[in-house]
Amino acid sequence: MTTPPNLNDLVGILLRFRLHQFAVTTDIEKAFLNVGLETQDRDVTRFFWFDTPTDPSTPLSTYRFKSVLFGATSSPFILNSVLQKHLRENRCEYTDTLMNDLYVDNILSSFPTESALLKYFDTSRDLFTRAGFNLRSWASNSQLLRDRANSHNVLDKDELIKVLGLRWNTCNDTLTFAKPEYTDIEDTQYQWKYCPTDSNPADMLSRGVTATKFLELDLWMKGPEWLTDKSNWPQWKNKESHILSTTIEQGQSTSEPQQKIRSYEGISKIMDIQRYSSYQKLLRITAYMYRFINNCRNNDKLTGNLSVNEIQTASTSWIRDSQLHSPCDSSDNTITSTRKAKTDAKEKIKSWIQPFRKT
Fold first, then answer.
1. CA 218 → CA 148, 183, 211, 227, 356, distances in Å?
2. Mean of the per-residue pLDDT values of the chain
3. Nearest 5°: phi and psi at 338?
4. Quick count: other Cβ atoms within 10 Å of Cβ 340?
5. pLDDT tens-digit profile of 40-97?
6. CA angle centred on 27, ends 109 and 83, rounded to 5°
7. Topology of 10-36+71-177 in CATH?
8. Which terminus has fewer CB within 10 Å in the chain: N or C?
9. Residues 6+ apart with CB under 8 A from 89
10. Which of 100, 108, 111, 98 minimizes the C-alpha distance to 21?
11. What is the C-alpha to C-alpha distance for residues 138 and 151, in angstroms, rounded to an integer?
12. Tens digits of per-residue pLDDT, 149-177?
């Protein structure tokens, strides 16, 4: 039986993480192992182990976990429930911030001033210490907080900090996506083949299956149907990823960065227009997305209400997307054909925004 993880929304955490000027991250040391299991609940965590691990001929002994084990489906839910209960029963100035910015054993927050940041550091560490947890690996774009964390031996000194799948350079305060590293398999003697997950018998055990159901699985007993027919062996299909690249340029005559959008496949490849109830809402969400990208890459953060330029940038990106997928025929240079092309373009844009038109 799996339990739905009562975890905070990742998008909201990342947005709040860059909401204010001074950002900070920390994580709970050995979080799962610090949550104990009741004696009557430990039997469900039984496992066998050799009396002498280096000698497989020795008898097997039965062990039980005394704490929440790392890797169990329910572990994130149990940890989150324990932390939320502790925070509710020991309220302080930053209780709501901690409850909203917590994701499993990671906490990401931001504050408008360094004084609030330093107070948050002291208060949160004291609060979690009372529950037997240690907040370690502190990282921030504030030098004052880095010095404070270093004096307590809890500073993360890595050049790039891991932030929920992203990489954060605290020195220049920029966020980047982790670049996947692929290693090509080169072997002159063998030719490697690809096996999909749903056809891999080993994946059944790793995902978990009952003993009764396991005995009924033809995939484990007989293997995939295509195994004996080489002509039907699956082929690896490399799915091209659609990337939206945004270049931020700062002009000398204005304090607001000007954005140039370069869309390789169009913004519609990463945003589903059908999910938004109105055209204006679509533009606002798009503008906030570009603001998030800007705040991740630049020291000059955009805050407050959306500006006219930001809304216009979002509108331009969607118009370009529409033009990219519905190009106009401008081969004829006559005045008549030019007017017709403009009319056709308007009609195509009107049809594109049809989901938002009032009836």
1. 59, 33, 14, 13, 50
2. 78
3. -65, -45
4. 15
5. 999 988 988 888 888 878 888 899 999 998 888 888 889 999 999 999 999 999 999 9
6. 85
7. Alpha-Beta Plaits (3.30.70)
8. C
9. none
10. 111
11. 12
12. 999 999 999 888 999 888 999 988 888 88
Query: DSSP letters of 296-309?
Result: HH-SS---SSPPHH
pLDDT, tens digit, for every residue of 90-139?
Answer: 999 999 999 999 999 999 999 999 999 999 999 999 999 999 999 999 99
- Segments in 10-94 forming alpha helices (H): 10-17, 75-89
Distance CA 312, CA 153 (A): 47
| pLDDT at residue 86 in the model | 94
Domain boundaries, the chain: 10-36+71-177, 197-232, 273-323+343-354
User: Which two tokens mark 7?
Assistant: 């975890």
**DSSP codes joined into one string, 4-18:** ------HHHHHHHHT
Calpha distance 54→135 (Å, rounded): 36
